Structure formats: C-alpha cells, structure tokens
C-alpha cells in the first residue's frame, strides 16, 4: 500500500475502518496486559481513533504513528487539545498533554525518536498491510518498541472473496511473525456482524503477545 492510497482515503473521507465508539475489545482485553497507569502505549497507524482518548482516560500516556496529518489534526480536535508541532527527523511531531503523535511513514520512525514504549496496541494495523509489507512491519515494530508486549486485534476471512484492506491474517501467520520472540495468547474470537463489508463471513480475533523470557 503506497502512502498516497491512505492520504486519498482520508482526503475523500473513505475511512470505513474508523469506529464511531471505543473498540469494546480494547476495553475488555487491554487489562490483561497488567499495565499500570502512567505507562506509555504505542498505537501504530492510529488515525483519529477514539481508542486513544480511552487510553488517556485510563491514565496512560500515548504515542502514535500516522501517515495523514489531516487525521491527526482531527484527533487533537476530538481530544480538545492544541498540539505543539515540531519537526523531528522525517516526521512532524504533534505533542499534547500525555500524547505524542508522529506524522509520517512508520518505517522511517526510529526507536530513538519514538522513545520508551511499555506496550503496543495494534488494532487493525497489521491487517492494513499486504502480506509482503507485514513481514517488514512486524520486524520494524519489534525493533522500535524493544519487544514491548502487545494487544493485537485483527481479522480472518477468505481472502479470495474480498481484496482488503483489511487483509486476512490467520493465527498461523501471526505465529510466523512473532513466536520466535513472544508467547502468543488467544483472548477472543468473534464473528463480525454482517461479515466483512457485507461480502463474506469474517472473524475478529484478539491476542496478547508477551516477550519470551530468556532461558
């Protein structure tokens, strides 16, 4: 997926992935990470998700990465914050109270610029990418977050019946990307009401990823 694909989606308001309420799977399963308030949660491809406001309301600090400056401007409007905007590396850094959003290509974001991450919330970030890019994404995410624990929410369906995004990511693929470094715990599997965009049956699945302990 080229950056222009996502820029065009935001500019034309084709943002079907944007939910009008906080994701109930986040509310139900984020506590399983046992993350104390005050810790920093990284949200890749965050858009203007209401989930970020929920994380802030739970006492966490939030970092996000997003290609679309329009989305981030709208996010800060939703939060009722005025962002301080800085240029840092290849990114624009939108800073607010307990929130940092880096506008630009996630693959240009370094660990040094991102800073400390205590947990990752991947809601439909992995499944936003085609298969070849998912390999690059998971390797980069592990590197810039130093293997922070993750809550991953994605989709599984018959890819031949719908082109994506979101793309289908099976449990086997998730294990291929992460099992060398993480213990993967399935938390929930839920049939998507009406299927994927009304085209085919789909399942939403939730996983907790914990860094493997050194032997």
Structure in words:
- The structure is a single chain.
- The protein is of the alpha/beta class.
- It contains seven helices and nine strands, in the order H-H-E-H-E-H-E-E-E-H-E-H-E-H-E-E.
- The protein has helices at residues 3-11, 24-29, 50-57, 69-79, 111-114, 131-145, 171-178, and strands at 40-44, 61-66, 84-88, 91-96, 99-103, 119-123, 150-157, 182-191, 202-211.
- A hairpin with a 2-residue loop joins strand 4 and strand 5 (99-103).
- The longest helix has 15 residues, at 131-145.
- The relative contact order is 0.14.
- The mean pLDDT is 91.
Throw out a few tags for this protein:
alpha/beta; 9-stranded mixed sheet; 7 helices
Outline of the structure:
This protein is α/β, with parallel strands linked by helices. It has 7 helices and 9 strands. The protein has a single domain, classed as Vaccinia Virus protein VP39 (Rossmann fold), CATH 3.40.50.150.
Please write out the topology.
Layout lengths: L2 H9 L12 H6 L10 E5 L5 H8 L3 E6 L2 H11 L4 E5 L2 E6 L2 E5 L7 H4 L4 E5 L7 H15 L4 E8 L13 H8 L3 E10 L10 E10 L4
Parallel strand pairs: 1-2, 1-6, 2-5, 6-7
Antiparallel strand pairs: 3-4, 4-5, 7-9, 8-9
Question: Count the helices. How many?
Answer: 7
Principal-axis shape: globular
C-alpha end-to-end distance: 38 Å
- Write down the overall mean pLDDT: 91
**Any idea what the CATH superfamily is called?**
Vaccinia Virus protein VP39
CATH topology: Rossmann fold
According to CATH, what is the class?
Alpha Beta
Task: Provide the succession of SSEs.
Answer: HHEHEHEEEHEHEHEE
Task: Give the helix level as a range of percent.
Answer: 25-40%
Q: Which architecture does the CATH hierarchy give at level 2? A: 3-Layer(aba) Sandwich
């Amino acid at each position: 997926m080229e950056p222009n694909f996502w820029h065009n989606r935001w500019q034309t308001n084709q943002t079907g992935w944007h939910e009008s309420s906080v994701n109930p799977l986040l509310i139900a399963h984020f506590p399983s990470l046992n993350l104390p308030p005050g810790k920093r949660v990284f949200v890749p491809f965050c858009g203007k998700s209401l989930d970020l406001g929920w994380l802030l309301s739970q006492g966490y600090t939030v970092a996000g990465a997003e290609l679309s400056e329009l989305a981030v401007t709208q996010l800060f409007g939703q939060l009722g914050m005025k962002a301080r905007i800085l240029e840092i590396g290849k990114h624009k850094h939108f800073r607010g109270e307990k929130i940092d959003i880096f506008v630009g290509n996630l693959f240009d974001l370094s660990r040094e610029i991102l800073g400390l991450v205590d947990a990752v919330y991947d809601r439909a970030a992995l499944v936003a990418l085609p298969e070849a890019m998912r390999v690059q994404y998971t390797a980069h995410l592990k590197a810039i977050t130093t293997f922070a624990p993750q809550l991953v929410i994605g989709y599984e369906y018959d890819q031949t019946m719908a082109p994506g995004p979101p793309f289908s990511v099976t449990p086997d693929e998730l294990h291929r990307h992460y099992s060398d470094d993480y213990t993967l715990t399935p938390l929930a599997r839920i049939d998507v009401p009406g299927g994927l965009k009304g085209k085919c049956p789909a399942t939403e699945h939730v996983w907790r990823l914990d860094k493997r302990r050194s032997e």
